[in-house]
Design brief:
7 helices; about 20% strand; alpha/beta; 10 strands; seven-stranded parallel sheet; about 30% helix; binds 2-phosphoglycolic acid
């Protein structure tokens, strides 16, 4: 079973997750991180930015990788996931731009780009820490439920449910990209440490599914985390409202 920690509030969840990154950073100033995007990590990234500003953590030697990116949003498109991390984290933590990585989703050959991105991660010795959100359908990164999974970085068609969930960040559903490049299951599982965060009542059903999960199910992608020896799931009380802990 996975290691679950439940906090009373979203703020406490965010601080706890940020503290896990800060703890890893103490042991390795050139920490290699895979960073999530979306609604869940905003508080954690704010806390990491605060730590950087107040001198409690030094991110200036770290390396940070986007877990996924929408096709075909340019790096500087305000809706891109790279812009999200730039806005919520990089600019505050003063991570050198050359230490921040994202798949080039405008590359002419996207399959070659996936291979290139995977290789950059390998060349950095894989991730020391990966912070994940979780989709309502159990996706991690953008590894959507499918009969089969790619272990390395790959192109993915987003499920209708994911497009609908992400419509809140766009003017309309039609504006939400339908494809993305995501880290593969293997890329994530090679990380030395994994922290999954979830908050809010809308994540209660998927968190219960994760809590009850005892075997790998490709139609419930987060179940692959059972293969990893160092996963911590941090949820707030609302996300944990359908099980007892
Ligand atoms: P969210 O997305 O943080 O916006 O809920 C989570 C995810 O899809 O991984």
């Amino acid at each position: 079973m996975l290691n679950f920690i439940i906090t009373e509030t979203y703020s406490a969840m965010s601080i706890l997750a940020a503290n896990r990154v800060a703890a890893a950073l103490i042991n390795k100033p050139d920490l290699v991180m895979a960073m999530p995007t979306g609604g869940t990590p905003v508080g954690m990234l704010a806390e990491m930015s605060r730590m950087a500003k107040e001198g409690e953590a030094d991110f200036t030697k770290t390396f940070s990788f986007n877990i996924d990116e929408y096709i075909p949003l340019a790096k500087d498109d305000p809706q891109s996931y790279y812009s999200f991390l730039q806005h919520h984290f990089y600019q505050h933590a003063h991570i050198p731009t050359e230490n921040t990585f994202v798949p080039d989703v405008q590359a002419a050959d996207l399959t070659a780009e996936c291979i290139r991105y995977e290789q950059i991660i390998v060349d950095h010795g894989d991730f020391d820490i990966t912070i994940l959100g979780i989709g309502h359908d159990g996706h991690i990164g953008f590894n959507e439920p499918h009969a089969t999974h790619s272990s390395v970085c790959h192109l993915i068609d987003l499920k209708t449910e994911t497009i609908e969930a992400n419509t809140r960040f766009f003017a309309s559903k039609d504006d939400v990209p339908k494809q993305a490049i995501t880290l593969g299951m293997g890329t994530i599982l090679r990380s030395k440490e994994i922290v999954l965060i979830a908050n809010g009542v809308s994540k209660a059903a998927v968190m219960k599914q994760l809590y009850d999960c005892t075997r790998i199910d490709p139609l419930f992608p987060a179940s692959f985390l059972l293969l990893h020896p160092n996963v911590t799931v941090i949820g707030d009380r609302e996300a944990a409202s359908l099980f007892n802990l």
